[in-house]
Design brief:
This protein has 394 residues and is α/β, with parallel strands linked by helices. It is 47% helix and 12% strand. Strands 1-2-6-5-4-3-7-8-9 form a 9-stranded mixed β-sheet, sandwiched between helices. A 3-stranded antiparallel β-sheet has the order 10-12-11.
């Protein structure tokens, strides 16, 4: 993109009072942004209000500083092949993803940072044709984290690109699971849609994760460089997460979770919504149960998602992550009888020693020894508050 073209796009996006909807009306009427700024006021009034037209006639004070910063960010990648590639994709770009363009409120401009072979061969449009969004709680249970990793790994190995928001909790686990998958490197492992500028990583603890995604997938933002984390931006970016994807899988969510916003947006965009059920006693499962009550697809395995998305896997061997789960299930039969009895008594809900003692009749010391053995074998997780939970893989 030439400096003049970039300047026009950034000026349009930075004009006070002119949002995406007004900007799209202007683009439809006059063409590219540089044509908009050549129009007299009376022509602009056919698309926007008098206040908006006046703002369009004035150049934003910080425009040149923003243009220089953006060009420096782009050029840094051009001159250093060891860095991930960087691109700007506008609504008129042939590489703009069709799935996102078809939504009610597509972003006018996207900042992209990712693996060079992805951004140089079709960009986000090519990648977005096999995407699944995975979202959930920022404070998941241990089982929720494991579910997110295992589902993302299995779905990635089945050929999907996992899209999420780089947030704490389920988002991060979904990205990590996709990155850990044994899959073809020619496609994106995962896409992170962030609510900040791409030069700002939030949360800061995800610096290393963001870099891994940039080298093996794509980071996406509609926000200008330097944009800090602002609460209102995160729900807004969720429409991009769902809009890039064939469907959205909610792993765990409370009833007030932002993940339900993503699921609602996916439904409004005509995309599939999936939810993993959980314990009736867990607040982190109530959002998923609410989605299931209004028609979300219940998911117990990665194949439930794949079948709904019409992916033919009859001749494909089970994904390694699914094979691993089957191996663990088969291993239960080899456990000592007292461990199998304890697993059956534990069920899949979090439970303390007192409740387990009442179910089994065993004393606390015996239970602690058996639980430790099962924890080391990967069948049980220790939770805060002295609780234990059986893992789904067991």
């Amino acid at each position: 993109m030439q400096r003049e073209e970039l300047t026009a796009w950034l000026r349009l996006l930075g004009t006070p009072g002119v949002g995406n909807q007004s900007a799209r009306r202007l683009l439809a009427a006059f063409g590219l942004p540089d044509q908009i700024f050549q129009q007299p006021r009376n022509m602009l009034l056919g698309c926007v209000s008098g206040t908006q037209a006046a703002a369009l006639m004035e150049q934003p004070v910080s425009l040149w500083k923003h243009v220089d910063r953006t060009l420096q960010w782009l050029n840094a990648s051009e001159s250093n092949c060891a860095m991930p590639a960087r691109r700007i994709c506008t609504l008129g770009d042939p590489d703009y993803p069709a799935s996102l363009y078809a939504t009610e409120d597509p972003p006018l401009l996207l900042y992209l940072e990712g693996a060079r072979h992805l951004l140089q061969t079709g960009g986000l449009q090519a990648v977005s044709q096999q995407c699944l969004a995975m979202v959930g709680s920022r404070n998941p249970t241990h089982q929720g984290r494991e579910n997110a990793r295992q589902f993302a790994k299995a779905l990635r190995e089945a050929g999907l690109t996992i899209v999420s928001g780089l947030a704490q909790g389920i988002d991060a686990c979904a990205h990590e699971g996709a990155l850990a998958a044994d899959a073809q490197p020619s496609s994106a492992a995962t896409i992170a849609v962030v609510g900040t500028g791409l030069d700002v990583v939030y949360p800061r603890a995800h610096q290393e994760l963001a870099m891994r995604i940039a080298h093996n997938g794509i980071l996406v933002s509609e926000y200008p460089l330097g944009m800090p984390p602002i609460a209102a931006n995160f729900p807004k970016r969720n429409r991009i997460i769902s809009g890039l994807s064939l469907g959205t899988l909610v792993v765990e969510a409370a009833t007030a979770s932002g993940s339900l916003i993503t699921a609602r947006m996916a439904s409004e965009q005509g995309r599939e919504v999936f939810a993993i059920p959980g314990s009736i006693h867990s607040p982190q499962s109530r959002g998923c149960h609410a989605l299931l009550r209004v028609g979300a697809k219940l998911v117990e395995s990665a194949n439930d998602v794949l079948e709904e998305l019409y992916m033919q896997r009859a001749a494909t061997p089970p994904a390694p992550a699914l094979m691993e789960q089957e191996t663990l299930r088969a291993g239960i039969e080899q456990l000592p009888d007292n461990q199998k009895t304890l697993l059956q008594a534990l069920g899949f809900d979090p439970m303390g020693l007192d409740a387990l003692g009442a179910r089994t009749g065993w004393d606390a010391a015996t239970l602690q020894v058996l639980l430790l053995e099962l924890e080391l074998a990967g069948y049980v997780a220790r939770l805060p508050g002295g609780l234990y939970q059986r893992l789904a893989s067991g």
